[in-house]
Amino acid sequence: MHSDSIDTVLLIHGYSVRTLNSWGLLPDLLQGAGLQRQAIYLSAFVSLDDYVSCSDLAVALEGKIAALERDQALDLGRTALICHSTGAIVTRRWLLNRRSAGAKTPSHLITCAGANHGSTLAQLGRTELAQIFRELTQQTDVGRRVLEDLDYGSAFLRALNREWIDAWNDANAPLWKDTYCFSMGGTDHSFWQNQLVWQSREPGSDGTVRISGANLNYRFLDLKPPYDTVIPVVMAQPAPHLVTVNDNPAKVYSHTSQRAPDTKGLVLTGVTNIVEQLTHFGKKKVPVSSQTFGILEGIQTPAERPFRALQEAFAVQNDQAYAALADAWYKESIAWTNANPDEADATVVVAITAGGDVVDDSLVVIYDASGLQSMTASVIGTPIKNELSPSIVSFYVNASAFRATHPHSVHIEARTDTPYVTYDLEIDGPLSDDTVHSLTDNQFTYVNVEATRDPSGALVLYSLANPGLPGILNANYPPFDPKVSRP
Hints:
Elements: E1 8-12, H1 26-32, E2 40-42, H2 54-71, E3 79-84, H3 86-100, E4 108-112, H4 121-124, H5 128-137, H6 144-150, H7 155-168, H8 175-178, E5 180-185, H9 211-214, E6 218-223, E7 231-234, E8 241-243, E9 253-254, E10 258-259, H10 264-279, E11 291-294, H11 305-314, H12 319-339, E12 345-354, E13 357-358, E14 361-368, H13 373-378, E15 384-385, E16 393-398, H14 399-403, E17 408-415, E18 425-430, E19 444-450
Parallel strand pairs: 1-2, 1-3, 3-4, 4-5, 5-8, 6-19, 9-11, 12-19
Antiparallel strand pairs: 6-7, 10-11, 12-13, 12-16, 14-17, 15-16, 17-18
Helix pairs in contact: 2-3, 3-7
């Protein structure tokens, strides 16, 4: 809830951060822009403990902010939270919790390279190699619970983003009117071009978070029985989102700053070319860089675009200004999109649930009127299955190539490994129609498919008067004898 101009800023960092200096010059630049030193707070939370989850961190954040309100007279109506990476979803979870409790929410929330919909690196961070690395170099866990929350289509992210969009569109008290929310993402993954792991080198990504994954604009498409229509849930008011490119094209922004001599590039060029071919990472080759600049801690002067974007967000004090900035940032981002069509990508997460539970086994195929043509032409890499729930699948596609074969449909099957509980789900349904397209440049789309779990095959009733009953009284079941399993 807005009180007046911003006079306090809380900086909420991301996964694996362990030092307070991870913000670079940003705190000093904020002070130089007029904020008092005592009104700038640096977070320090534990993300590399296997028992700590993003929900835990949201609860811990509430405790610290409530203490500031009580002991330091913090006015959230004049407070902005600037979040990086995983800090975005921790803070958004905190904001929804606080809102549902009827407590005051902050004036501004700005997510910078926020993992608002997850990160491709989440599964990589849980591998045995990652565990060995953390143990040997940092003597820590890998933060398994946080990484599970960061996996595409995780239960945490699906719940967070559904609750968020419902609150955003609340007819009586929309979230965006209480807290002006902004997002921005970087585009530079050049430092990672000489790495063997494909996850860090996706087009339309800052090396860790996809632009679509950072965007606070997204949609849900609901498919419910009888599966003959798609029910879209879209943002009633677009949030300002900026694809952050500096006025000086020589300086673009990555997830975090990295600097090292380019020695591996000389040795691994042939290998990385093979990886590029196997993962189908577009046509545009990005030269290997020996230095990249983080979208926040890489800012060195107040004239740089990310810092000016922060100031533009701070200046928003009414709904009209909020809508105007959303339009201005959209036009700026579209200009980048049009200039970089190979990196204007989108993500689709398909989740099949029955009574709230994820189904056991599924097949998801997206196609157009010509069959699989659209996915073959536009797919980037291969579909990624959620590690805990393999029936939740994410597709990463080039948006313009996908749109070229509009409209699209989806074939979905759901099965179990037992005859006693079934879903009996096999559908061919629309994924878009003539007015609502399933994908938008640099945005996320969640496709929710509601299945019906049928456990009726797990129990039968036998009539005592059934003439066939005596013959099976001492036999083990199942299987059930169809001749006598009717009353």
